[in-house]
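Q: I have two molecules that I believe assemble together. Could you output structure tokens for the complex as a whole instead of separate predictions?
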Amino acid sequence: MALEDYKGVYIFAQQVDNKLDNIAFELLGKARDLANDLGGVEVAAVLLGSGIKDLADELAEYGADKVIVVDDARLETYRTEPYAQALAGVINEFKPEIMLVGATAIGRDLGPTVSARVATGLTADCTSLDIGQFPLNAEPDKAKQNQLLMTRPAFGGNTIATIACPDNRPQMATVRPGVMQKIEPKKGAKAEVVEFNPGFQENDRYVEILEVVKDVAKTVDISEAKILVSGGRGVGSPENFKLLEDLADAIGGTVSCSRAVVDNGWKPKDLQVGQTGKTVRPNVYFAIGISGAIQHVAGMEESDIIIAINKDETAPIFEVADYGIVGDLNKIVPLLTDAIKAQMAS
Amino acid sequence: MKIVVCIKQVPDTAGGVQFNPDGTLNRAAMLTIMNPDDKAGLEAALRIKDADPDNVEVTALTMGLPKADDVLREAMAMGADKGVLITDRVLGGADTWATSSTIAAGLRNIDYDLIITGRQAIDGDTAQVGPQIAEHLGLPVISYAEDIKLEDGYVTVKRQYEDRYHMLKAKLPCLITALAELNEPRYMSPGGIFDAYDEKEVTVWGRNDLKDLDDANIGLAGSPTKIAKASDKVRKGAGETVNLDPKESVDYIMGKLLEKHVI
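A: Yes, here they are, computed for all two components at once.
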């Protein structure tokens, strides 16, 4: 089959516990831009799960023209093999030119499995997607047009690479959560809903789920926060995070943290900002007692305003901060909390 | 029980990064380490061996330049029984598809009950090679392992997600990708270092030792993804930094928050 016979921009609409993940809406927002740049091709969401048909309308409101539903009891809880059979089945049947998957703990397992199964390339953890020609600098008649150009950081955020997949379809990417913009939902929008049966084959690759344990501490999604009060090793102890929580409460923000804090067991992994945590771009990012390792900066440098407080004036965080304060967080943070409370009350 | 751990020698990105004058990464000037997730995977395998030393054999396997021999010696000094190095000029420039195709072909030369890889390497951060090896070999895969337990033909794994974990049970043989959080890897022992260089062997395989591997799936030419452009990340410049007493510091921050209409 010729490459140009592959049509449309498809996204994997991740749901957990029959609730759509934000990444599904973010991918739809980007898919719409790409579809427009390709001359108005179709945007389709692939919805896999059990008892999930009702979610199709929500995907339509966020921009899906079509929703392909595989509704099967085997898909109730995420497992690599039945999900891979379903998504690979959809790709082989519908032949999209682009397939986007969230770079989540599910997508970073499903994406590589499916890309290998359908024998195409996959670019990990993309932070920017565009349509253009490949090679970039060739004469237009000597280049392939309408290619997906996938940009991602590498080497711990030290370099940035743009990657194409010129000879295989679909062009597949996993996309970092919190980076793409979702559209304003169009209430009452409807999509064409197509139910699809991939013909599941149960085999030894089906793992058994013995137990699902939810982390009850999880309450917030830091990638959605407008103001983040982020703490690092310099905060000193889990108890001392109270200072940051008070500041967050006063200013209407959310507490997040660096990798060191998670490694020390002070805070759960879902609050971690950085290369191996989440990418955030709030309006204001307070970096408190965070030295600013490259891996951390890669996850927060797109923040609108960065305010860093650190006692070490040589800390690399000051190289990315808009406003850097050299000083003792134990003294400054409580005073700042009081000042904000006083300001809010006036 | 035969366990193969796939490891990678990576530049130590955490220890500072060196650039060439043309802006590309100066790999030669950078220290290399065993990739942290892989090292945790190796430690997990060695703990299984510790519990039953006579019946468990641990092989460390890597693909890379000839100097990746070093990382295999390190693995053997920690306690791995054997090392396998896949190295050949024609394998260079491979993306994750070509890398996983090549490593899978190497694994077909070896008996295994369990394959452990790291979740991701700190140079590429893709997390793709482990699951793709499993796909090429037709094995069950469990990614993001926080805990691994073996029992009679099965493995149970604590599989991490953002807000939860699953306890999963898979039939052997299977492939697991390990998180650095899995454990604290041991240090090399002096006796282990001696053995690694004098007693234990590294098997070296080139392209022609890998059967059942199509030339269309190896190296740069066999990589479906192509680099269109690579550059240093353009960073936002530093803003202003002040060094004031605590009260003045707070006044300074409040001034900025008001000026920017945050409060």
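A: One point stands out. Chain B touches chain A through 80 residues (CB under 8 Å).
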